[in-house]
Amino acid sequence: MTTSRPAMHLSPRCGARARAGTHCRAPAVRAKRRCRLHGGAEGSGAQPGNKNAFKHGFYSAQTEAERRRLRALMKAWRKAAVEMG
Ligand SMILES: [Zn+2]
Fold first, then answer.
1. How far is the CA of 37 from the centre of ligand 1 (A)?
2. Around 14, how many Cα atoms within 13 Å sit in the side-chain half-sphere?
3. 76 CA from centroid of ligand 1 (Å)
4. What spacing in Å lies between the alpha carbon of 21 and ligand 1's midpoint?
5. How far apart are the first and last CA of the chain?
6. For a designed S-S bond to 46, which of 11, 50, 53, 59 qualifies (C-beta 3.0 to 4.6 A apart)?
7. How confident is the model at residue 44 (pLDDT cuts 50, 70, 90)?
8. Comparing C-alpha atoms, which of 5, 4, 9 is closest to residue 26?
9. What separation in angstroms does the CA of 11 have from each of 32, 60, 67?
């Protein structure tokens, strides 16, 4: 069983907040973000890729990437303006 240990330790962790103020470090259920005690149980949760909670897309990966890009651009502009005095 020693060969399977590294893979086990690399698997994504649950991360749910525990009562002690720490985080749950149990391995997350496959294809989910939480362990089986914290909402990752088989048959619970939404189908992968469902859009039921999608409202406007402000926090979607695409718009966040766009915001990041714009922020970097603004930063570069500000830096250039400062350097011009
Ligand atoms: Zn957990």
1. 5
2. 18
3. 42
4. 13
5. 65
6. 50
7. confident
8. 9
9. 11, 25, 30
Place of tokens 């893979």: 7
- Name the amino acid, one letter, at 22: T
Ligand 1 centroid to 13 CA: how many Å?
A: 8
The pLDDT tens digits for 51-81 are 888 888 888 888 999 999 999 999 999 999 9
Tokens encoding 51? 């859009």
69 alpha carbon to ligand 1 midpoint, in Å? 34
Distance (Å) from CA 7 to ligand 1 centroid? 18
**C-alpha 29 chain-centroid distance:** 15
